[in-house]
Design brief:
Blueprint lengths: L5 E4 L3 H12 L4 E4 L3 H10 L7 E4 L2 H6 L6 E4 L5 H10 L8 E4 L5 H11 L5 E8 L1 H7 L2 E5 L2 H14 L2 E2 L2 E2 L1 E5 L3 H30 L4 H11 L7 H11 L22 H12 L4 H14 L1 H11 L12 H34 L5 H7 L10 H11 L10 H23 L5 H13 L6 H12 L26
Parallel strand pairs: 1-2, 1-4, 2-3, 4-5, 5-6, 7-10
Antiparallel strand pairs: 6-7, 8-9
Helix pairs in contact: 1-6, 8-11, 8-12, 8-14, 9-10, 11-12, 11-14, 12-18, 14-17, 14-18, 15-16, 17-18
The structure holds NADPH dihydro-nicotinamide-adenine-dinucleotide phosphate (NDP) and ribulose-5-phosphate.
The site of NADPH dihydro-nicotinamide-adenine-dinucleotide phosphate has 23 residues, from α1, α4 and β6.
Length: 479
C-alpha cells in the first residue's frame, strides 16, 4: 500500500476535521486515535475521502504507514496527554521525523518539549490552530513555531489546508520553539476579551434596555454589516436568533450563565504580568469568566446585597445609545487588540523570537475565531510601522480612538450608573485614559514607597536627590 505523506494522532473534534481537510487537499494521511473504535468510526464517516486516509489501530502500524521522514500532527487534549503520547510515539520514530503538537499547549511546555528533542535527531513543532470545528475542516489559521528548516518541510501541506484571505494563506512560521503556541495563546486572550465585551454589551441591551433576544440579534446582525464585521459578532447574532428545541424559547435564555475556560486566557494574563505589560481588558475578561463560574455564590450574594439600588438606565434616545454601543465596542476592541499585540512585542524581545506583527495580523484575517475586517486594518497599521510602541498610536488607530472613545466613556458611565457590570469595557477605557496621560499619578506611589521603604525615586528635573524629606519615615497615623 502507498505510504502516507503525513500522520495525525487524535480524532476528536479538531483532529478529525483537520485530517479530512488534509485528505481533501490531496494529501495521503495516516490516522490514529487512543480509543481505536473512534478510528473506525472516523474512517466510515470519511466518505469519498477514504482513498486518501489510512486508518491505523496500533502505533506501530501508524508509524509504518507514513513515509519517512515523517511529519506527525498530535491533536489531542493539551497538557500531560501530549507528553504521554509523545513518549509512546518516540521509540518508533527515526532520525528527522517531526512531531507537531497542534493543540492549545502552554508555550512553556512547547519550549520544554522542543529542548528535550533538540539533540535526539527528532524535531518538534508547536503549532497553534484556530477556527474551531469548521475552521479545521475547511481552513484554519495556523501559527507555527519551531526551526525554520522544519517549517520548510511542512509548509506545503499546511499551506494547502489553511484558510485564505483574498488568496493569501493564513499560515506562517512565526519563530523558534514556543513562538507559535505563544501567539495562539494571545490570540485566545484577545478572543476572551472580544467575547466578554460582546457579552457586556448584550447585558446592557438585555438588562438595561430590556430588549429580547430577537431584538438584540437584529442589533448584532446590523453591526456585522458595519465596522464591527467579524465572526464573533456574526455568531452572536446567530446564537441570539436560535430557538430552544425544548420549549421554543430563545436558547440563550436557557443557557446557564457559567463560562468555561481551558487555560489560554489565564496564560495570556500570567505572561503579560510576568513581563510587566498591561493587558487589563484581557485580565478583566478572564476574571469575568471566573466570576461567572461562581454561580452559587453570586445567587447567594444577590439575596444578601440585592441588585444595586439605582434608577433604570438613563437613555433618552435609544437609537443614539445603540449607535454609542457600537462605537464603544469598537473602541474597547481596539484597546484589547493593542494590549494583545503589546504582550506579543514584549515576548518577542523576552524570548528572542522576532515575532512578525504584520504577519500575525495577516494570518488572523481569516480562518480563526477572531477573524474580522478590523484585522485587515491592523495589518495595514503594522505593515506601515512594525515596531510601533502601541497600536493605538498608529495614525489610523489613533484617529479611530479619538472618534470612538467618547462613546465608550458614555456607555461605561451609563452602565456603571445603572448598576450593570462592564469590567472589560471599563478596563479598555481606563487603559486609554492612563496610556494617553503624559503626567500620571505614580509620583504618589513612588513617594509612598520611598517613605516606607527607602526605595528611592527619580525626579522630574533630573536632580540628584533620590530620597524624600520624610524624616524618620515613621507615620503618625493609625497603626
Ligand atoms: N475545539 C476547539 O474549538 C479547539 C480546540 N483546540 C485544541 O485542540 C486540542 C484537541 O481539542 P478537541 O479536538 O476539541 O478535543 P476533543 O475532546 O474533541 O478530543 C480530544 C482528543 O484527545 C485524545 N486524548 C485525550 N487524552 C489523551 C491521552 N492521554 N492520550 C492520547 N490521546 C488522548 C482523545 O482520544 P480518545 O478518543 O481516546 O479520548 C481525542 O482524540 C486541544 O488541545 C484543544 O485545546 C484548538 C483550537 C480549537
Ligand atoms: O482555541 C480555541 C478557539 O480559538 C478553543 O475553542 C478553545 O477551547 C477556546 O478556549 P476556552 O475553551 O478556554 O474558551
Amino acid at each position: 500500500m502507498e505510504q502516507a505523506e503525513i500522520g495525525l494522532i487524535g480524532l476528536g473534534v479538531m483532529g478529525s476535521n483537520l485530517a479530512l481537510n488534509i485528505a481533501e487537499k490531496g494529501n495521503r494521511i495516516a490516522v490514529f486515535n487512543r480509543t481505536p473504535a473512534r478510528t473506525g468510526e472516523f474512517y466510515e464517516e470519511a466518505g469519498s475521502l477514504k482513498d486518501n486516509i489510512v486508518p491505523c489501530e496500533t502505533i506501530e502500524d501508524f508509524v509504518a504507514a507514513i513515509r519517512p521522514p515523517r511529519p506527525i500532527i498530535i491533536m489531542i487534549k493539551a497538557g500531560a496527554p501530549v507528553d504521554e503520547q509523545m513518549a509512546l510515539l518516540e521509540p518508533h520514530l527515526q532520525q528527522n521525523d517531526i512531531m507537531i503538537d497542534a493543540g492549545n499547549a502552554n508555550f512553556r511546555d512547547t519550549m520544554r518539549r522542543f529542548d528535550a528533542l533538540k539533540d535526539s535527531g527528532l524535531t518538534f513543532i508547536g503549532m497553534g490552530v484556530s477556527g474551531g470545528e469548521e475552521g479545521a475542516r475547511h481552513g484554519p489559521s495556523i501559527m507555527v513555531g519551531g526551526t525554520e528548516a522544519s517549517w520548510k518541510r511542512v509548509e506545503k501541506v499546511l499551506t494547502s489546508i489553511a484558510a485564505q484571505y483574498h488568496g493569501e494563506p493564513c499560515v506562517a512560521w512565526l519563530g523558534e520553539n514556543g513562538a507559535g503556541h505563544f501567539v495562539k495563546t494571545i490570540h485566545n486572550g484577545i478572543e476572551y476579551a472580544d467575547m466578554q465585551m460582546i457579552a457586556e454589551i448584550y447585558g446592557i441591551l438585555r438588562d438595561g434596555l430590556k430588549m429580547d433576544a430577537a431584538e438584540i440579534a437584529a442589533v448584532f446582525a446590523g453591526w456585522n454589516r458595519g465596522r464591527l464585521n467579524s465572526y464573533l459578532i456574526e455568531i452572536t447574532a446567530k446564537v441570539l436568533e436560535a430557538a430552544d428545541p425544548i420549549g421554543g424559547r430563545p436558547i440563550v435564555d436557557m443557557i446557564l450563565d457559567k463560562a468555561g475556560q481551558k487555560g489560554t486566557g489565564k496564560w495570556s494574563v500570567i505572561e503579560a504580568q510576568n513581563m510587566g505589560v498591561p493587558a487589563t481588558a484581557i485580565e478583566a475578561a478572564v476574571a469575568a469568566r471566573s466570576i461567572s463560574a461562581l454561580k452559587d455564590e453570586r445567587e447567594a450574594a444577590e439575596k444578601v446585597l440585592g441588585l444595586p439600588a439605582v434608577p433604570p438606565l438613563a437613555v433618552s434616545d435609544k437609537a443614539a445609545f445603540i449607535k454609542d454601543l457600537e462605537n464603544a465596542l469598537l473602541a474597547a476592541k481596539i484597546g484589547a487588540y493593542a494590549q494583545g499585540f503589546a504582550v506579543m512585542a514584549a515576548a518577542s524581545r523576552e524570548f528572542g523570537w522576532s515575532l512578525p506583527m504584520p504577519t500575525i495580523a495577516k494570518i488572523w484575517r481569516a480562518g480563526c475565531i477572531i477573524r474580522s475586517q478590523f484585522l485587515d486594518e491592523i495589518t495595514t497599521a503594522f505593515t506601515r510601522d512594525p515596531h510601533v510602541a502601541n497600536l493605538i498610536v498608529t495614525p489610523a488607530f489613533a484617529a479611530m480612538v479619538r472618534e470612538t472613545d467618547g462613546a465608550l466613556r458614555r456607555v461605561v458611565s451609563t452602565a456603571v450608573l445603572g448598576g450593570l457590570p462592564v469590567p472589560a469595557l471599563a478596563a479598555a477605557l481606563g487603559y486609554f485614559d492612563s496610556y494617553r496621560r503624559g503626567r500620571g499619578t505614580a509620583n504618589i506611589i513612588q513617594a509612598q514607597r520611598d517613605f516606607f521603604g527607602a526605595h528611592g525615586f527619580d525626579r522630574i528635573d533630573g536632580a540628584d536627590s533620590h530620597h524624600g524629606p520624610w524624616g524618620s519615615g515613621l507615620g503618625t497615623g493609625a497603626a
